[in-house]
Amino acid sequence: MDTQSLNLRLSEEHEALRRSVREFAKRKITPVAAHFDETGDFPMEIVKEMGKMGLMGIEIPEAYGGAGMDTVAYVLAMEEIAKADAATSTILSVNNSLFCHAIYRFGTETQKQKYLRDVATGEKIGAYSLTEPMSGSDAGNMKSRAVLSSDGTHYVINGRKSWVTSGPVADYVVLFTMTAPEHGHSGITAFLIETDKPGFAPGKKEPKLGIRASATSELIFDDYCCPVENVLGEVGKGFKIAMTVLDAGRIGIASQALGIAEAAYEASVEYCRTREAFGAPIGTFQMLQAKIADMKTRIEASRLLIYNAALAKESAKGTGGRYTTEASMAKLFASETAMFCAHQAVQIHGGMGYSKEMPVERYFRDAKITEIYEGTSEIQRLVIARNELGLR
Ligand code: CAA
Predict the structure, then answer these.
(1) What is the average pLDDT value for the chain, to the nearest integer?
(2) CA 347 vs CA 11, 302, 355: distances in Å
(3) Whether residues 224 and 280 fall in one domain
(4) Which site from 45, 65, 307, 365 is most exposed, i.e. has the minimal number of CB atoms within 10 Å?
Protein backbone atom coordinates (compact mmCIF):
# COMPACT_ATOMS: atom_id res chain seq x y z
CA MET A 1 0.00 0.00 0.00
CA ASP A 2 1.24 3.49 -0.87
CA THR A 3 0.82 5.51 2.33
CA GLN A 4 3.20 8.15 0.92
CA SER A 5 0.40 9.39 -1.31
CA LEU A 6 -1.41 10.49 1.87
CA ASN A 7 1.45 12.61 3.13
CA LEU A 8 -0.12 15.66 4.77
CA ARG A 9 3.20 17.42 5.50
CA LEU A 10 3.87 20.67 3.67
CA SER A 11 6.80 20.86 1.27
CA GLU A 12 9.90 22.96 2.09
CA GLU A 13 8.73 25.52 -0.47
CA HIS A 14 5.30 25.83 1.13
CA GLU A 15 6.82 26.09 4.60
CA ALA A 16 9.17 28.83 3.40
CA LEU A 17 6.27 30.76 1.90
CA ARG A 18 4.26 30.38 5.09
CA ARG A 19 7.19 31.68 7.15
CA SER A 20 7.78 34.71 4.96
CA VAL A 21 4.08 35.67 4.84
CA ARG A 22 3.75 35.15 8.62
CA GLU A 23 6.77 37.33 9.27
CA PHE A 24 5.47 40.04 6.92
CA ALA A 25 2.00 39.93 8.49
CA LYS A 26 3.38 40.17 12.04
CA ARG A 27 5.65 43.04 11.16
CA LYS A 28 3.47 45.09 8.82
CA ILE A 29 -0.18 44.14 9.38
CA THR A 30 -0.76 43.14 13.02
CA PRO A 31 0.45 46.48 14.43
CA VAL A 32 -1.96 48.50 12.28
CA ALA A 33 -4.97 46.16 12.06
CA ALA A 34 -6.92 47.82 14.89
CA HIS A 35 -6.22 51.26 13.42
CA PHE A 36 -7.57 50.32 9.98
CA ASP A 37 -10.55 48.61 11.61
CA GLU A 38 -11.31 51.81 13.51
CA THR A 39 -10.92 54.20 10.56
CA GLY A 40 -12.22 51.92 7.80
CA ASP A 41 -9.45 53.27 5.56
CA PHE A 42 -8.23 51.06 2.73
CA PRO A 43 -4.70 49.72 3.49
CA MET A 44 -3.29 50.65 0.07
CA GLU A 45 0.35 50.64 1.14
CA ILE A 46 0.06 47.11 2.53
CA VAL A 47 -1.70 45.95 -0.63
CA LYS A 48 1.17 47.32 -2.74
CA GLU A 49 3.69 45.50 -0.54
CA MET A 50 1.74 42.27 -0.86
CA GLY A 51 1.89 42.83 -4.61
CA LYS A 52 5.68 43.14 -4.51
CA MET A 53 5.83 39.85 -2.58
CA GLY A 54 3.83 38.13 -5.34
CA LEU A 55 0.77 37.66 -3.11
CA MET A 56 -1.77 39.47 -5.28
CA GLY A 57 -1.58 36.85 -8.06
CA ILE A 58 -0.22 33.80 -6.27
CA GLU A 59 -1.42 31.13 -8.72
CA ILE A 60 -0.99 33.19 -11.87
CA PRO A 61 2.02 32.15 -13.99
CA GLU A 62 5.02 34.46 -13.91
CA ALA A 63 4.51 35.19 -17.61
CA TYR A 64 1.36 37.11 -16.61
CA GLY A 65 2.88 38.86 -13.62
CA GLY A 66 1.94 36.31 -10.97
CA ALA A 67 4.01 34.24 -8.55
CA GLY A 68 3.43 30.94 -10.40
CA MET A 69 2.64 29.02 -7.23
CA ASP A 70 -0.19 26.61 -6.47
CA THR A 71 -3.46 26.55 -4.53
CA VAL A 72 -1.77 25.21 -1.39
CA ALA A 73 0.47 28.30 -1.45
CA TYR A 74 -2.63 30.45 -1.86
CA VAL A 75 -4.44 28.96 1.13
CA LEU A 76 -1.34 29.24 3.32
CA ALA A 77 -0.89 32.91 2.42
CA MET A 78 -4.57 33.64 3.00
CA GLU A 79 -4.48 31.96 6.41
CA GLU A 80 -1.44 33.94 7.56
CA ILE A 81 -2.72 37.31 6.35
CA ALA A 82 -6.19 36.66 7.82
CA LYS A 83 -4.64 35.73 11.15
CA ALA A 84 -3.17 39.23 11.29
CA ASP A 85 -6.12 41.05 9.72
CA ALA A 86 -9.20 39.57 8.08
CA ALA A 87 -9.99 42.76 6.12
CA THR A 88 -6.63 42.70 4.36
CA SER A 89 -7.13 39.03 3.51
CA THR A 90 -10.50 39.86 1.92
CA ILE A 91 -8.75 42.22 -0.51
CA LEU A 92 -6.18 39.50 -1.20
CA SER A 93 -8.81 36.84 -1.74
CA VAL A 94 -10.95 38.78 -4.21
CA ASN A 95 -7.93 39.96 -6.19
CA ASN A 96 -6.54 36.42 -6.45
CA SER A 97 -9.45 34.08 -6.82
CA LEU A 98 -12.33 36.17 -8.08
CA PHE A 99 -10.49 38.52 -10.44
CA CYS A 100 -7.16 36.98 -11.51
CA HIS A 101 -8.51 33.44 -11.59
CA ALA A 102 -11.48 34.55 -13.74
CA ILE A 103 -9.27 36.26 -16.33
CA TYR A 104 -6.65 33.50 -16.35
CA ARG A 105 -9.24 30.77 -16.78
CA PHE A 106 -11.66 32.47 -19.19
CA GLY A 107 -9.81 35.43 -20.74
CA THR A 108 -8.33 35.72 -24.23
CA GLU A 109 -4.59 36.24 -24.60
CA THR A 110 -5.21 39.95 -25.30
CA GLN A 111 -7.36 40.27 -22.16
CA LYS A 112 -4.70 38.52 -20.09
CA GLN A 113 -1.99 40.83 -21.35
CA LYS A 114 -4.13 43.91 -20.83
CA TYR A 115 -5.89 43.18 -17.52
CA LEU A 116 -4.24 40.28 -15.71
CA ARG A 117 -0.63 41.38 -15.50
CA ASP A 118 -1.12 44.65 -13.59
CA VAL A 119 -3.61 43.13 -11.17
CA ALA A 120 -1.49 40.04 -10.51
CA THR A 121 1.46 42.28 -9.62
CA GLY A 122 -0.72 44.43 -7.34
CA GLU A 123 -0.13 47.58 -9.37
CA LYS A 124 -3.85 47.66 -10.07
CA ILE A 125 -6.77 46.25 -8.09
CA GLY A 126 -9.41 43.86 -9.35
CA ALA A 127 -13.00 43.31 -8.20
CA TYR A 128 -15.83 40.87 -8.93
CA SER A 129 -19.42 42.00 -9.19
CA LEU A 130 -22.31 39.52 -9.17
CA THR A 131 -24.67 40.58 -6.39
CA GLU A 132 -27.43 43.16 -6.80
CA PRO A 133 -29.74 44.79 -4.26
CA MET A 134 -32.47 42.24 -5.09
CA SER A 135 -30.30 39.22 -5.98
CA GLY A 136 -27.83 37.84 -3.46
CA SER A 137 -28.20 34.09 -2.94
CA ASP A 138 -30.48 33.94 -5.99
CA ALA A 139 -27.58 35.20 -8.08
CA GLY A 140 -29.16 34.45 -11.46
CA ASN A 141 -32.07 36.79 -10.86
CA MET A 142 -30.34 40.04 -11.76
CA LYS A 143 -31.95 43.26 -13.00
CA SER A 144 -28.93 45.00 -14.56
CA ARG A 145 -28.74 44.88 -18.33
CA ALA A 146 -26.20 45.02 -21.18
CA VAL A 147 -27.65 45.81 -24.61
CA LEU A 148 -25.65 45.33 -27.81
CA SER A 149 -25.34 48.53 -29.86
CA SER A 150 -26.94 48.58 -33.31
CA ASP A 151 -23.50 48.53 -35.00
CA GLY A 152 -22.45 45.55 -32.88
CA THR A 153 -19.29 47.20 -31.53
CA HIS A 154 -20.20 47.61 -27.88
CA TYR A 155 -22.67 46.88 -25.11
CA VAL A 156 -24.46 49.60 -23.19
CA ILE A 157 -24.65 48.63 -19.53
CA ASN A 158 -27.16 49.97 -17.03
CA GLY A 159 -27.95 48.96 -13.47
CA ARG A 160 -26.83 48.81 -9.90
CA LYS A 161 -24.62 46.16 -8.31
CA SER A 162 -24.01 45.79 -4.60
CA TRP A 163 -21.63 44.36 -1.99
CA VAL A 164 -18.60 44.63 -4.23
CA THR A 165 -15.35 44.06 -2.34
CA SER A 166 -12.75 46.68 -3.32
CA GLY A 167 -15.52 48.42 -5.34
CA PRO A 168 -14.43 52.00 -4.48
CA VAL A 169 -10.75 51.36 -5.31
CA ALA A 170 -10.86 48.79 -8.13
CA ASP A 171 -9.28 49.61 -11.47
CA TYR A 172 -10.97 46.69 -13.21
CA VAL A 173 -14.10 44.70 -12.43
CA VAL A 174 -15.34 41.33 -13.65
CA LEU A 175 -19.02 42.17 -14.04
CA PHE A 176 -21.93 39.77 -14.51
CA THR A 177 -25.02 41.19 -16.13
CA MET A 178 -27.97 40.19 -18.31
CA THR A 179 -27.60 40.31 -22.07
CA ALA A 180 -30.72 38.19 -22.72
CA PRO A 181 -33.09 38.29 -19.72
CA GLU A 182 -35.56 35.99 -21.47
CA HIS A 183 -33.04 33.14 -21.20
CA GLY A 184 -32.58 33.27 -17.41
CA HIS A 185 -29.16 31.95 -16.33
CA SER A 186 -28.17 31.46 -19.96
CA GLY A 187 -28.80 35.15 -20.60
CA ILE A 188 -26.02 36.28 -18.26
CA THR A 189 -22.69 37.45 -19.71
CA ALA A 190 -19.40 38.37 -18.02
CA PHE A 191 -17.65 41.63 -18.94
CA LEU A 192 -14.32 43.25 -18.15
CA ILE A 193 -14.96 46.76 -16.89
CA GLU A 194 -12.49 49.65 -16.73
CA THR A 195 -13.58 51.88 -13.87
CA ASP A 196 -12.06 55.10 -15.21
CA LYS A 197 -14.52 55.24 -18.13
CA PRO A 198 -17.68 57.40 -18.30
CA GLY A 199 -20.87 55.73 -17.11
CA PHE A 200 -19.23 54.02 -14.15
CA ALA A 201 -19.38 55.18 -10.54
CA PRO A 202 -18.85 53.43 -7.24
CA GLY A 203 -22.02 54.03 -5.23
CA LYS A 204 -22.65 53.95 -1.51
CA LYS A 205 -19.82 52.54 0.61
CA GLU A 206 -21.19 49.98 3.06
CA PRO A 207 -20.77 50.79 6.77
CA LYS A 208 -19.91 47.25 7.87
CA LEU A 209 -19.86 45.33 11.16
CA GLY A 210 -16.45 43.80 10.43
CA ILE A 211 -13.67 43.59 7.79
CA ARG A 212 -14.03 47.34 7.84
CA ALA A 213 -10.78 48.16 6.02
CA SER A 214 -11.80 46.22 2.92
CA ALA A 215 -13.79 48.80 1.02
CA THR A 216 -17.19 47.45 -0.05
CA SER A 217 -19.58 49.41 -2.20
CA GLU A 218 -22.29 49.49 -4.80
CA LEU A 219 -21.35 49.96 -8.45
CA ILE A 220 -23.53 52.11 -10.64
CA PHE A 221 -23.65 51.71 -14.42
CA ASP A 222 -25.32 54.52 -16.33
CA ASP A 223 -25.03 53.98 -20.10
CA TYR A 224 -21.52 52.56 -19.65
CA CYS A 225 -20.12 51.54 -23.07
CA CYS A 226 -18.21 48.27 -22.98
CA PRO A 227 -16.49 47.16 -26.21
CA VAL A 228 -17.43 43.66 -27.43
CA GLU A 229 -13.75 42.67 -27.04
CA ASN A 230 -14.33 42.96 -23.28
CA VAL A 231 -16.80 40.11 -23.10
CA LEU A 232 -15.14 37.55 -20.80
CA GLY A 233 -15.73 34.04 -22.11
CA GLU A 234 -18.75 33.50 -24.31
CA VAL A 235 -21.93 35.56 -24.41
CA GLY A 236 -24.55 33.78 -22.26
CA LYS A 237 -22.00 31.79 -20.27
CA GLY A 238 -21.62 34.35 -17.49
CA PHE A 239 -23.49 32.42 -14.81
CA LYS A 240 -21.27 29.37 -15.21
CA ILE A 241 -18.19 31.58 -15.13
CA ALA A 242 -19.49 33.24 -11.96
CA MET A 243 -20.09 29.87 -10.28
CA THR A 244 -16.79 28.35 -11.43
CA VAL A 245 -14.89 31.33 -10.10
CA LEU A 246 -16.80 31.26 -6.82
CA ASP A 247 -15.69 27.66 -6.30
CA ALA A 248 -12.11 28.97 -6.20
CA GLY A 249 -13.13 31.97 -4.12
CA ARG A 250 -14.79 29.78 -1.49
CA ILE A 251 -11.48 28.01 -0.82
CA GLY A 252 -9.95 31.44 -0.18
CA ILE A 253 -12.73 32.43 2.24
CA ALA A 254 -12.35 29.09 4.03
CA SER A 255 -8.65 29.90 4.52
CA GLN A 256 -9.52 33.37 5.72
CA ALA A 257 -11.91 31.82 8.24
CA LEU A 258 -9.17 29.45 9.38
CA GLY A 259 -6.84 32.40 9.98
CA ILE A 260 -9.48 34.21 12.07
CA ALA A 261 -10.22 31.03 14.04
CA GLU A 262 -6.53 30.52 14.79
CA ALA A 263 -6.06 34.11 15.91
CA ALA A 264 -9.02 33.73 18.29
CA TYR A 265 -7.68 30.40 19.52
CA GLU A 266 -4.13 31.64 20.14
CA ALA A 267 -5.40 34.67 22.06
CA SER A 268 -7.58 32.33 24.15
CA VAL A 269 -4.73 29.94 24.95
CA GLU A 270 -2.58 32.86 26.07
CA TYR A 271 -5.36 34.28 28.23
CA CYS A 272 -6.13 30.87 29.77
CA ARG A 273 -2.48 30.56 30.79
CA THR A 274 -2.00 34.05 32.17
CA ARG A 275 -5.33 35.21 33.59
CA GLU A 276 -5.95 34.01 37.13
CA ALA A 277 -9.22 33.53 39.01
CA PHE A 278 -9.97 31.72 42.25
CA GLY A 279 -6.21 31.49 42.83
CA ALA A 280 -5.30 29.64 39.62
CA PRO A 281 -4.85 30.27 35.87
CA ILE A 282 -8.31 30.09 34.30
CA GLY A 283 -7.01 27.40 31.92
CA THR A 284 -7.07 24.95 34.86
CA PHE A 285 -10.88 25.07 34.88
CA GLN A 286 -12.43 22.22 32.95
CA MET A 287 -15.22 24.31 31.45
CA LEU A 288 -12.60 26.48 29.72
CA GLN A 289 -10.49 23.44 28.82
CA ALA A 290 -13.50 22.06 26.94
CA LYS A 291 -13.68 25.28 24.92
CA ILE A 292 -9.97 25.08 24.06
CA ALA A 293 -10.31 21.44 23.03
CA ASP A 294 -13.34 22.12 20.81
CA MET A 295 -11.68 25.14 19.19
CA LYS A 296 -8.47 23.24 18.42
CA THR A 297 -10.31 20.21 17.04
CA ARG A 298 -12.52 22.29 14.74
CA ILE A 299 -9.50 24.32 13.54
CA GLU A 300 -7.58 21.19 12.56
CA ALA A 301 -10.67 19.69 10.88
CA SER A 302 -11.09 22.93 8.90
CA ARG A 303 -7.46 22.81 7.85
CA LEU A 304 -7.88 19.28 6.47
CA LEU A 305 -11.01 20.25 4.53
CA ILE A 306 -9.18 23.30 3.11
CA TYR A 307 -6.13 21.28 2.04
CA ASN A 308 -8.48 18.69 0.55
CA ALA A 309 -10.24 21.41 -1.48
CA ALA A 310 -6.91 22.96 -2.52
CA LEU A 311 -5.65 19.58 -3.76
CA ALA A 312 -8.95 18.94 -5.57
CA LYS A 313 -8.53 22.30 -7.32
CA GLU A 314 -4.95 21.43 -8.25
CA SER A 315 -6.07 18.08 -9.71
CA ALA A 316 -8.78 19.81 -11.71
CA LYS A 317 -6.34 22.30 -13.31
CA GLY A 318 -6.38 22.06 -17.08
CA THR A 319 -9.10 19.38 -17.08
CA GLY A 320 -12.17 21.62 -16.71
CA GLY A 321 -13.14 19.36 -13.79
CA ARG A 322 -15.06 20.72 -10.82
CA TYR A 323 -14.25 20.81 -7.11
CA THR A 324 -17.51 22.47 -6.09
CA THR A 325 -18.38 20.12 -3.22
CA GLU A 326 -14.87 20.18 -1.72
CA ALA A 327 -14.80 24.01 -1.85
CA SER A 328 -18.27 24.36 -0.32
CA MET A 329 -17.51 21.86 2.47
CA ALA A 330 -14.30 23.69 3.34
CA LYS A 331 -16.03 27.08 3.34
CA LEU A 332 -19.03 25.86 5.32
CA PHE A 333 -17.02 24.17 8.05
CA ALA A 334 -14.22 26.71 8.33
CA SER A 335 -16.55 29.72 8.45
CA GLU A 336 -18.70 28.15 11.15
CA THR A 337 -15.46 27.29 12.97
CA ALA A 338 -14.32 30.92 12.77
CA MET A 339 -17.59 32.07 14.27
CA PHE A 340 -17.46 29.35 16.93
CA CYS A 341 -13.87 30.15 17.91
CA ALA A 342 -14.39 33.91 17.94
CA HIS A 343 -17.49 33.44 20.10
CA GLN A 344 -15.63 31.17 22.53
CA ALA A 345 -12.68 33.58 22.60
CA VAL A 346 -14.91 36.49 23.65
CA GLN A 347 -16.45 34.29 26.35
CA ILE A 348 -13.07 33.14 27.64
CA HIS A 349 -11.87 36.75 27.83
CA GLY A 350 -15.00 37.81 29.72
CA GLY A 351 -15.38 41.59 29.93
CA MET A 352 -12.03 42.07 28.20
CA GLY A 353 -13.35 40.11 25.22
CA TYR A 354 -16.03 42.76 24.82
CA SER A 355 -13.51 45.58 24.82
CA LYS A 356 -11.74 47.15 21.85
CA GLU A 357 -8.57 46.96 23.93
CA MET A 358 -8.30 43.28 22.97
CA PRO A 359 -8.34 42.01 19.37
CA VAL A 360 -10.87 39.21 20.05
CA GLU A 361 -13.68 41.75 19.76
CA ARG A 362 -12.52 42.40 16.17
CA TYR A 363 -12.18 38.68 15.41
CA PHE A 364 -15.79 38.23 16.54
CA ARG A 365 -17.04 40.95 14.17
CA ASP A 366 -14.78 39.82 11.31
CA ALA A 367 -15.69 36.12 11.59
CA LYS A 368 -19.38 36.67 10.86
CA ILE A 369 -18.93 37.69 7.23
CA THR A 370 -17.28 34.37 6.37
CA GLU A 371 -20.65 32.68 6.95
CA ILE A 372 -22.29 35.15 4.55
CA TYR A 373 -20.24 36.26 1.56
CA GLU A 374 -19.31 34.14 -1.45
CA GLY A 375 -22.37 32.07 -0.57
CA THR A 376 -24.05 31.85 2.84
CA SER A 377 -23.75 28.70 4.96
CA GLU A 378 -27.29 27.86 3.81
CA ILE A 379 -26.16 28.08 0.15
CA GLN A 380 -23.08 25.92 0.86
CA ARG A 381 -25.34 23.25 2.40
CA LEU A 382 -27.65 23.49 -0.61
CA VAL A 383 -24.71 23.14 -3.03
CA ILE A 384 -23.24 20.14 -1.19
CA ALA A 385 -26.59 18.36 -0.86
CA ARG A 386 -27.63 18.99 -4.48
CA ASN A 387 -24.32 17.63 -5.74
CA GLU A 388 -24.50 14.59 -3.47
CA LEU A 389 -28.10 13.82 -4.34
CA GLY A 390 -27.78 14.70 -8.01
CA LEU A 391 -30.96 16.76 -7.63
CA ARG A 392 -31.72 20.47 -8.00
N1 CAA B 1 -19.59 25.41 -11.62
C2 CAA B 1 -19.99 25.38 -12.92
N3 CAA B 1 -21.31 25.48 -13.27
C4 CAA B 1 -22.23 25.60 -12.29
C5 CAA B 1 -21.87 25.62 -10.93
C6 CAA B 1 -20.47 25.52 -10.60
N7 CAA B 1 -20.06 25.54 -9.34
N8 CAA B 1 -22.98 25.74 -10.18
C9 CAA B 1 -24.03 25.79 -11.04
N10 CAA B 1 -23.56 25.70 -12.30
C11 CAA B 1 -24.34 25.67 -13.54
C12 CAA B 1 -25.35 24.51 -13.48
O13 CAA B 1 -24.77 23.31 -13.91
C14 CAA B 1 -26.43 25.00 -14.41
O15 CAA B 1 -26.05 24.76 -15.74
P16 CAA B 1 -27.11 24.17 -16.84
O17 CAA B 1 -28.16 25.23 -16.95
O18 CAA B 1 -26.28 24.00 -18.08
O19 CAA B 1 -27.62 22.90 -16.28
C20 CAA B 1 -26.45 26.52 -14.20
O21 CAA B 1 -25.16 26.83 -13.64
C22 CAA B 1 -27.52 26.96 -13.25
O23 CAA B 1 -27.33 26.25 -12.04
P24 CAA B 1 -28.50 26.09 -10.95
O25 CAA B 1 -29.77 25.70 -11.63
O26 CAA B 1 -27.98 25.22 -9.87
O27 CAA B 1 -28.67 27.60 -10.44
P28 CAA B 1 -29.52 28.18 -9.24
O29 CAA B 1 -30.21 29.41 -9.69
O30 CAA B 1 -30.36 27.12 -8.61
O31 CAA B 1 -28.40 28.71 -8.24
C32 CAA B 1 -26.87 28.56 -6.45
C33 CAA B 1 -27.47 27.89 -7.68
C34 CAA B 1 -25.91 27.54 -5.88
C35 CAA B 1 -27.92 28.91 -5.41
C36 CAA B 1 -26.10 29.83 -6.91
O37 CAA B 1 -26.98 30.83 -7.34
C38 CAA B 1 -25.21 30.41 -5.80
O39 CAA B 1 -24.10 29.94 -5.58
N40 CAA B 1 -25.72 31.47 -5.11
C41 CAA B 1 -24.86 32.20 -4.16
C42 CAA B 1 -24.16 33.32 -4.88
C43 CAA B 1 -22.98 33.84 -4.13
O44 CAA B 1 -22.16 33.10 -3.61
N45 CAA B 1 -22.88 35.16 -4.10
C46 CAA B 1 -21.75 35.82 -3.52
C47 CAA B 1 -21.22 36.82 -4.52
S48 CAA B 1 -19.58 37.36 -4.35
C49 CAA B 1 -19.54 38.30 -2.95
O50 CAA B 1 -19.91 37.84 -1.91
C51 CAA B 1 -19.01 39.70 -3.00
C52 CAA B 1 -17.57 39.84 -2.90
O53 CAA B 1 -17.01 40.79 -3.44
C54 CAA B 1 -16.76 38.89 -2.10
Answers:
(1) 97
(2) 37, 22, 12
(3) no
(4) 45
